[in-house]
Structure formats: C-alpha cells, structure tokens
Write a structure and sequence with these properties.
rod-shaped
Length: 102
C-alpha cells in the first residue's frame, strides 16, 4: 500500500540534495523510528526553506539597491554638469544671459 509522504515534497527543488536524501531515508524507516525523527526533520526542512526565502529577499533587495545607486550616481553626475555649466555661464563676462548690473 502506497501512503502519501509525510514531508511536503512539492518544493524539493528548493532543498539541498542532502536534505532530500535524508527525507527519503527517514521515509524508509519503520513507523516507530520515523515518528521520533519526523518532527525534527520537519523543522530542518522548514528552516531551510525559510532561510532560502530570506536569502532570495536579501538578494532582490541588494539588486534593487544597486539599481537605485546607479540612478543616483547618474542623477548626481547630471546635476554636477548642470552646476558647472551654470557657473561657467555666470563667470563669462561677455555673456550676461539677460542679467545686467544696475
């Protein structure tokens, strides 16, 4: 008789191969021994998945931060260019740009 696996194996691709092998070994144990080990193994599986999700979130946040930094550097460089152009136009005595001393 085939019974459903006691562990949630729908996301085995998220788990390291060693943990998947451990789950398979636990499922092959007699019910008496399996019942003693399953709660601990479930905690390991859940903590591994949680760590993987956290790692993915951190990686996404770092990617977004890198992109934001690129935009900020671009904006800073553009602002500096505009400032330098404005200063050079103010320092040019022949070009008043509509500004006259009274």
């Amino acid at each position: 008789m085939q019974t459903a696996p006691r562990f949630n194996n729908d996301k085995t691709d998220e788990l390291p191969r060693d943990i998947v092998e451990l789950i398979s070994a636990i499922e092959a144990l007699p019910a008496k021994h399996r019942a003693a080990i399953e709660p601990v193994a479930n905690r390991v599986v859940n903590s591994t998945r949680r760590r993987r999700r956290i790692l993915n979130l951190v990686q996404e946040a770092l990617s977004q931060l890198r992109l934001d930094m690129k935009y900020l550097v671009f904006d800073l460089e553009a602002t500096r260019r505009e400032r330098d152009e404005f200063r050079s136009s103010q320092e040019d005595p022949g070009d008043n740009h509509g500004l006259e001393d009274e």
